[in-house]
């Protein structure tokens, strides 16, 4: 039994976000982190590994420095990393990205008892599309927004969190589950793990590795193969500075209430 | 044979009409209203696609907001949402009737379903849109208001380079959405494939009545129990009534500033919210600390709100929080720290301890209301 986890290295949007004059993101000047929801997927995989002794393999697509992120995951307990990287894959939208990652997972080999875990969504794009689209390309059932996962034999019972409650869904392996932060609390790297992570294997899959896979075609990957195009990107105008009301006493709040009443806000 | 790149073969605007338990979700009406606008700009019909069990009754409600036609699929297998059954019906329907646009609400259902459909149909999908246009003039007007782009860049949005040639975007759906936690907005198009698909953020589009006689269509369909690979064991509504942040006109949110006395801080926020006729929101820090339920969370990983008034109490204003509330009509911030970033987006700021300021503010508001 294997658990595949898909992870993404993302710019840390909680820090300073730099925007180029042309409205694109200045990624070079930003810190990168492991996408937060993906950490919950990794933790879910490692919890199942602790219980069942299975192998956990992390997949990521990105530029070569993403290998560092895979090593961090290995220091947490992930057994193997797969780095999918090629110039041909650059500029892919969610459709093309899921096509490539699905091809990589399929090349590695999905067996009947395997599980694929993904984070709900990445904080750079916030699309939540790649998980379900990988599942579709691999013809696997999916359960999104998992807040609880239980495994009995080849059946997973997943608590799928909804806006107004939850649903409990049963699904057979192999399947795709997308994970939310309510699922667990990600563990830290441990000292032994940090030493061991450099002895573990990172497999690199390039365009050459995957080019003969039926899902990979120049017309369905990369910028040219992406069904969507960016027409333009822009920054919203900065809101003008507001009014700071001096003081913190009753006369200050009276003044504020007066303004709100005059504007018919209250 | 269905081919998503035969652009000319596709016509009409479709909206996936989400129902739960036989009740239409409010977002559906927002999408029907927005779909009506797009259909008028294209000069085509607006159609709903509704899946459920015995849902003809609620299908008729869609006429109120401007639907010309509703494709209704009734089956016990469709009573509760499953990705497999819903994807199969929608994909089969798109292949049969070929709509040029297909919209979903960006709910936990829409965001599970739409990507799956787009991947099977081989077409593009834009997530969590907050603005949609067909008409190019309207779109460029929108950019003049909502962006800092110079006029020459706005002018250039009329076409894109595709395979070495200029492609006019006049009939393409221009789908605008926030990215990077709201730091950046992007307009996305799907010029080479149909339908152009989008999930739309709930609560953003305005519901507008536009009554017309709606025609219900019941196409034949093929769905077997074995098409569904997941089993829904139970659907449970939250025992506690969840707070409706998205529909609220007034929101009073609390942040780490209440840590000194969490119970009292929440009680003050509640009292102020009651006085305004609103609800209580919270920053991620409060939710993570377990002080308040996750349904109250405002921000990138919580809800995006745009009330008439947003009061931020003891919230420093991290970027993820601002992403969820900066579109509010009027923002009032109370914070002890005068350099808190929340003041950068506040219309009115008071530097002070919320435990002192809020009781005073409640009193002042009561007096101001009484004086009216």
What does this structure look like?
The complex is a heterodimer of chains A (266) and B (372). Chain A is α/β, with parallel strands linked by helices and 266 residues long. Chain A has a single domain, classed as Rossmann fold (3-Layer(aba) Sandwich). Chain A has 8 helices and 13 strands. Chain A has helices at 36-52, 67-76, 94-108, 130-137, 191-196, 207-210, 222-225, 250-262; strands spanning 2-7, 9-11, 32-34, 55-61, 80-84, 115-119, 142-152, 155-162, 165-172, 175-179, 201-205, 229-234, 243-245. Chain A has a 9-stranded mixed sheet with strand order 9-8-7-10-6-1-4-5-11, sandwiched between helices. In chain A, helix 3 (94-108) packs across helix 4 (130-137). The radius of gyration of chain A is 22 Å and the shape is globular. The model of chain A has no long low-confidence stretch (mean pLDDT 92). In chain B, the strands form 5 sheets. In chain B, strands 7-13-6-1-4-5-14 form a 7-stranded parallel sheet, sandwiched between helices. In chain B, strands 17-16-18-19-20 form a 5-stranded parallel sheet. Chain B is built from 11 helices and 20 strands. Chain B has helices spanning 26-42, 56-59, 83-97, 110-121, 136-146, 151-155, 262-276, 284-288, 319-325, 342-345, 354-371; strands spanning 13-17, 19-20, 23-24, 46-52, 69-74, 101-105, 125-129, 131-133, 159-162, 165-168, 174-179, 184-189, 196-200, 215-217, 230-237, 250-254, 279-282, 309-313, 330-335, 348-351. The mean pLDDT of chain B is 94. Chain B has 2 domains: 7-134 and 171-227, 3-Layer(aba) Sandwich (Rossmann fold), CATH 3.40.50.620; 250-371, TPP-binding domain (Rossmann fold, 3-Layer(aba) Sandwich), CATH 3.40.50.1220.
Question: Which characteristics define this entry?
Answer:
heterodimer, A: 266 residues, alpha/beta, Rossmann fold, 9-stranded mixed β-sheet, two-stranded antiparallel ribbon, B: 372 residues, 7-stranded parallel β-sheet, 5-stranded parallel β-sheet, 26% strand, globular
């Amino acid at each position: 039994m294997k658990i595949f986890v898909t992870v993404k290295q993302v710019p840390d949007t909680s820090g300073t976000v730099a925007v180029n004059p042309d409205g694109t993101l200045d990624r070079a000047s930003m810190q990168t982190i492991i996408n937060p929801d993906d950490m919950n997927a990794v933790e879910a995989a490692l919890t199942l590994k602790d219980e069942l002794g299975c192998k956990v393999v992390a997949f990521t697509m990105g530029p070569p420095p993403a290998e560092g992120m895979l090593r961090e995951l290995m220091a947490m307990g992930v057994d193997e990393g797969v780095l999918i990287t090629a110039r041909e894959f650059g500029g892919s939208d969610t459709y093309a990205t899921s096509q490539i990652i699905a091809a990589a997972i399929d090349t590695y080999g999905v067996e009947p008892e395997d599980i694929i875990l993904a984070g709900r969504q990445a904080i750079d794009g916030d699309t939540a599309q790649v998980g379900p689209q990988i599942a579709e390309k691999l013809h696997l059932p999916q359960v999104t927004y998992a807040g609880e996962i239980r495994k009995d034999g080849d059946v997973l019972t997943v608590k799928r969190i909804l806006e107004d409650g939850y649903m409990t869904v049963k699904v057979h392996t192999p399947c795709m589950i997308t994970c939310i932060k309510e699922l667990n609390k990600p563990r830290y790297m441990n000292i032994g793990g940090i030493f061991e992570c450099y002895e573990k294997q990172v497999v690199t899959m390039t365009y050459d590795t995957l080019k003969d896979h039926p899902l990979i075609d120049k017309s369905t990957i990369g910028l040219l193969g992406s069904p969507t195009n960016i027409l333009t990107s822009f920054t919203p105008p900065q809101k003008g500075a507001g009014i700071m009301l001096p003081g913190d006493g009753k006369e200050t709040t009276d003044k504020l209430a007066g303004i709100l009443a005059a504007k018919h806000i209250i | 044979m269905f081919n998503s790149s035969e652009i000319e073969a596709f016509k009409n605007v479709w909206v996936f009409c989400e129902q739960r338990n036989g009740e239409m979700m409010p977002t559906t009406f927002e999408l029907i209203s927005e779909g009506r606008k797009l259909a008028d700009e294209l000069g085509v019909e607006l159609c709903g696609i509704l899946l459920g069990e015995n849902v003809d009754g609620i299908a008729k409600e869609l006429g109120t907001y401007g639907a010309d036609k509703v494709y209704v699929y009734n089956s016990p297998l469709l009573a509760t949402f499953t990705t497999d059954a819903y994807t199969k019906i929608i994909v089969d329907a798109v292949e049969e009737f070929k709509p040029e646009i297909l919209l979903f609400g960006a709910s936990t259902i829409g965001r599970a379903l739409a990507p799956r459909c787009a991947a099977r149909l081989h077409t593009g999908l834009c997530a969590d849109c907050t603005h949609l246009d067909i008409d190019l003039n309207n779109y460029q007007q929108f950019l003049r208001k909502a962006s800092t782009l110079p006029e020459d860049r706005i002018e250039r949005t009329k076409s894109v380079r595709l395979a070495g040639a200029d492609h006019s975007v006049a009939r393409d759906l221009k789908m605008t959405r926030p990215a990077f936690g709201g730091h950046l907005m992007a307009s996305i198009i799907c010029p080479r494939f149909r339908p152009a698909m989008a999930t739309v953020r709930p609560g953003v589009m305005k519901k507008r009545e536009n009554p017309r006689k709606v025609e219900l269509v019941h196409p034949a369909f093929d769905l077997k129990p074995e098409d569904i690979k997941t089993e829904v064991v139970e659907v449970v509504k939250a025992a506690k009534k969840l707070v409706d942040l998205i529909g609220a006109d007034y929101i009073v949110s609390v942040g780490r500033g209440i840590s000194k006395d969490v119970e009292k801080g929440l009680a003050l926020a509640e009292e102020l919210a009651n006085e305004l006729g609103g609800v209580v929101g919270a920053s991620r820090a409060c939710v993570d600390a377990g002080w308040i339920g996750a349904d109250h969370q405002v921000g990138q990983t919580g809800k995006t709100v745009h009330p008439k008034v947003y009061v931020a109490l003891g919230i420093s204003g991290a970027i993820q929080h601002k992403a969820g509330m900066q579109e509010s009509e009027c923002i009032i911030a109370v914070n002890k720290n005068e350099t808190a970033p929340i003041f950068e987006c506040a219309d009115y700021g008071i530097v002070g301890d919320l435990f002192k300021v809020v009781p005073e503010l409640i009193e002042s508001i009561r007096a101001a209301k009484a004086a009216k």
